[in-house]
Amino acid sequence: MRRRLGLGFWTATCWIGLVLLAALLADVLPFARYDETLAGPPQSGPSLAHPFGTDGLGRDVLSRVVYGARVSLGVGVGAVLLGLGIGAPLGILAGYRRKAADAVIMAVNDVAQAFPALVFALAVVAFAGANLRNVLIVLGVLGIPSWVRLIRGATLTYAEREFVLAARVLGTRDGRILWREIVPNVAVPAASYAFIGMAVVVVAEGSLAFLGLSVQAPTPTWGGLINEGRTLMETAPHVVLAPSVVMFLTVLSFNLVGDRLRSLADVRESGLEPARQAAAFSLPTTTHPVRDCLLQVEDLRTHFVTPRGVVKAVDGVSFTLERGKTLAIVGESGSGKSMLIRSILGLLPGASVRGGNVYLSGDDLTTYSSVEMRSVLGPKLGTVFQDPMTALNPVRTIGTQVTEPLRVHLGMGRRQARAEAVRLLASVGIPDPARMLRRYPHQLSGGMRQRVTIAMALSCGPDVLFADEPTTALDVTIQDQVLRLLHRLREERDMAVVLVSHDLSVVARWADEVIVMYAGKVVERGPAAEVFARARMPYTEALLQAAPRLTDPVHHRLRVIPGRPPDLVDLPQGCAFRARCAYAEERCAIEAPPLFEDGHQYACWYPRDRSAPGTGAPSPIPLPVTREPAAEPAPAADEPATAPTPAPATGFDDEPATPVTTPRRSRKRS
Ligand SMILES: Nc1ncnc2c1ncn2[C@@H]1O[C@H](COP(=O)(O)OP(=O)(O)OP(=O)(O)O)[C@@H](O)[C@H]1O
Q: Which residue stretches does the UniProt record annotate as biased composition, category Low complexity (predicted)?
């Protein structure tokens, strides 16, 4: 956390602490009082005795600035506490209770916010008297509407979160939920806004003082000092510069501290955000012989420099992929599957570092600029993401989203793009596609939305389609339809598919090749049937054994892989799987195994020997269940968004909903 707040935060905090301390200890500090006229000449410049010089009446400017801080910071702290004290309870009440309380509080709040703040402050102070108490009350009251709005927004966010619902389900009282669940979460944005609010109040007080409507002379305030020094700008600029610079630095510091505190509450910046030195960190890249294939990945590495150390999310992955083939990537959660895909596509978070090469039809994509990559993403590389709801923009129609890549990449006109979009939606099995173009994502069921994202990914005719767990967010009945669809489209378009999946039965059924990943590395790789029939690496064996089968006896214990995946920041020496491996020997702890070749590749010093069934060696592990799926039915045009069950089948199987020229394929399974 200390590193995430950064040097700026700590410098700003020290400055605020220094100013605050000086203001508190002003009476005991070794300088003259703010109103004491000194013996020396007035308007004298900075000296050792008077670091900020003296003003027009020969008074010590440093002393006046320090005493002025008492008023400025006092008003700042007081006004913020007043605003928070009244605004926070109202905001929490409005955000948590909603309904009538929310409507009344927000209506009054909106009216209050409509008042021009400075004019209101001027009028009240001029009428009630310019003194510390009145200025503090006016600025505090003016801050209340902003506090209400901020706290209400934060409360609304947390009131709908699962942990609050869970507390409600457990019968926890509202007061306790507010105090235990909501207030601690709202506290961080509130603390952040308190500092920013302090900066606003210090400036507002300075403005009032400048106009002579704050604490009256001889008590100094920063705004008043700037006003006094104004006339001496040419003869003694230090008189106006000293309070101005101190005020500027203090306001800047409040803003900086507030901003950094806000980032603590920001999920995007929490956890493992890359450290700054990532830019200076680079991975060596060597050149490789380019093979005659569609996609060639060589020694691909993706590392993140984090405050905890370097996370090796992808570490030296190589493979090739031919047209018309499906490559599956499997492995436990966190093994680097998604990062591998994002690394190939060049879609990595800002400060990550990539090494190695990605050749697409012989061209090295790692040498492409971001502009060049834009011309590849879409036309040559398509992607289908896990959750179709988040992959589609909820406020744009399906039509706008499907036609966009056609217009951007293929330069089609509006009408042509719409006609093509209709054809695309029809080809992925969406009934009444012309009407579908006018709908929004939330009006479609999960399966239909995934069909739309597949249509978008295919719109520019990519050579390789990356599907990152495309069925995880879908109902099990829809999963199979989507996989069948991908398979059919692959055959029709002669493209390659890279499929990430947790489901080994899916992989066993649809993939030609499989890569097993563990701790960012490939630990087994080869033809899917061969790898599943003769898994050599104990990790692959454990994955296969952990997959449930329909032949399992009822109520049997689920098999799990013991232990946990290693920490990618601190990988153990030798084989990364050794701590969880039942067959590990001494050598596994010393030396990391390379990829051995024996029919397929595996990284293990003591591989499982499945080459000789019936000779005492362990028998092949049965493949995970490959359900014989029902035919892929065409979803009805009016399929409700919340009902994933498809409409009665209309004879649609793995064939497109509208006739295309592709001949019907055999349904025989390998
Ligand atoms: N921005 C990041 N900064 C640091 N580490 C990251 C970042 N993003 C991912 N990682 C790490 O990279 C590793 C691989 O992540 P990845 O998302 O590829 O896993 P995965 O195998 O796809 O998992 P899942 O199946 O759960 O999606 C994880 O251990 C993760 O902690």
A: 631-650
